[in-house]
Amino acid sequence: MIHTLQHTGLHGAGLSDILAKAQAPKGVLYHHFPGGKNELAVAAIDSTVSYMCAMLDKLMQSEPDARSAMKAWIARALRGLDGSGFERGCPLAAVALESTAADVALRQALAEGFAAIRARITAALVAGGHGQARAQGFAALTVAAYEGGLLQARVAHDATPMLQATETLLSLLDAEF
């Protein structure tokens, strides 16, 4: 489901295609996800967030500082985007852009997911000696630059928007901290 969301978004994800890729009968889907495709999407969002947070944790531990970890995180996303021929985006952004006010569970999962990612970045900046409030602001800016840059790069089939956003973000971080 995550792969499908990255490539086609929620509305482009047909249940028949999802079931075929999973090699599962329809009854299995509704047994485990009685809410259907939206409940499955919430589970995919939760899984994506867990993966992204684990990856950020690993980068924060392996890189010398939060700046280097953020740069590595964004570079990794760009490699994935480029490797997919600019077809693979972030499943969180894809679902967020397609969600409506009626999609309460989806939006809650997304809000919690983005908050968890921002919290990881904030914690790394605070651990590096930066103030909590300013670190939270930079974490929000980082996630916005990541998602917005990724979206722009994907539709343009060109990494330049994400590279420019990253370079500007990192220069602001250097100047601020």
Record the SSE blueprint.
Blueprint: H1 2-8, H2 15-22, H3 26-32, H4 37-62, H5 66-83, H6 91-98, H7 104-127, H8 132-156, H9 160-176
Helix pairs in contact: 1-6, 4-5, 4-7, 5-8, 5-9, 7-8, 8-9
Would you summarize the structure shown here?
Helices cover 79% and strands 0% of the residues. It has 177 residues and is mainly alpha-helical.
CATH class: Mainly Alpha
Contiguous helical run count = 9
H-E order: HHHHHHHHH
Count of discrete structural domains: 1
Overall, the morphology is: globular
CATH architecture identity: Orthogonal Bundle
What helical percentage do the residues reach?
Answer: over 70%
How many strand elements?
0
Radius of gyration: 17 Å
Give the DSSP E fraction (strand runs of 2 or more residues).
under 5%
Decide which structural class fits the backbone: mainly alpha
Mean pLDDT: 86
CATH superfamily: Tetracycline Repressor, domain 2
Explain how this protein is built.
The structure is a single chain. With 177 residues, the chain is mainly alpha-helical. The chain has one domain: Tetracycline Repressor, domain 2. It contains nine helices and no strands.
